[in-house]
Known about the structure:
Elements: E1 2-3, E2 10-16, E3 19-24, E4 27-32, E5 52-56, E6 62-66, E7 74-78, E8 83-87, H1 102-114, E9 120-124, H2 130-137, E10 141-146, H3 149-161, E11 169-173, H4 176-186, E12 192-195, E13 200-202, E14 208-210, H5 211-223, E15 232-237, H6 244-259, E16 262-271, E17 278-288
Parallel strand pairs: 1-16, 4-5, 9-10, 9-12, 10-11, 12-15
Antiparallel strand pairs: 2-3, 3-4, 5-6, 7-8, 13-14, 15-17, 16-17
Helix pairs in contact: 1-2, 5-6
Amino acid sequence: MWICRDWLDYKVLDLSDGEKLEDWHGYRLVRPDPQVIWNRREFPGEWNSFHGRYHRSHKGGGNWEFFKRVPDRWLVEFAPLKLKFNIKPMGFKHTGLFPEQAVNWLWFSELIRNSGRPVNVLNLFAYTGGATAAAAAAGASVAHIDSSKGMVTWAKENMISSGLENCPVRYIVDDVVKFVEREIRRGRKYDAVVMDPPSYGRGPNGEIWKIEDELFPLLEKCVQVLSENPLFFLINSYTTGLAPSVLSDLLQMTVVKKYGGSTEADEVGLPVENSALVLPCGASGRWQKW
């Protein structure tokens, strides 16, 4: 498992009863997590005081209940890369950041810095721009693509908070598949691709995305926009039941088939503070040329 142990402003404090207790730079939140199938608290005292809890509804979605004042937004920093992110508790339990992805940011940031050449990154399903910020901070230019205008605006806010607002980033609100198809027609090329596809989603014009139907065709299209000497390819997945080896297999059948190189895949996870426990948080598949 790839585990990020480098956060200072974020901690998982305990896990129990289908929930995780997290500290986001001083604000403690309780959120549902389907991986937590036990009902024993390792650190019961930590649960005595938290700021908010997300309650999932049986009808879908849910709502936040706050017990202490929480600002509309606040910053957390990923110190190793000097990145700052705006945290905002929002619908469907999200806060605007997936801290476990920092382990991937560290991986590809090193590749970019050590490449010795300009690197153009395509970030698909780019959300609030964690990967965009990491790639830009490492010296890459980035095309940031997401179907939600609100998420793209949030990504711009994160870039400003990180002092990266003048980096070469193109922010594009679009359906990912249609955007890649247009890039193929334009002949535009990228040295690296990062994608964080949802299990299910809708594009800005109602386009339906189902990962089991759409991911492989999208990868085949993405190969067509890679440069002659690509640097890396990263796929993240939060889809329950999709094994990490599936991501490696997909990369083998698409990127490796054309460019060679090597793949690896594993779960990504977050450590529980003062414990040997690790919270699994999905999977990642990585390809790199060397």
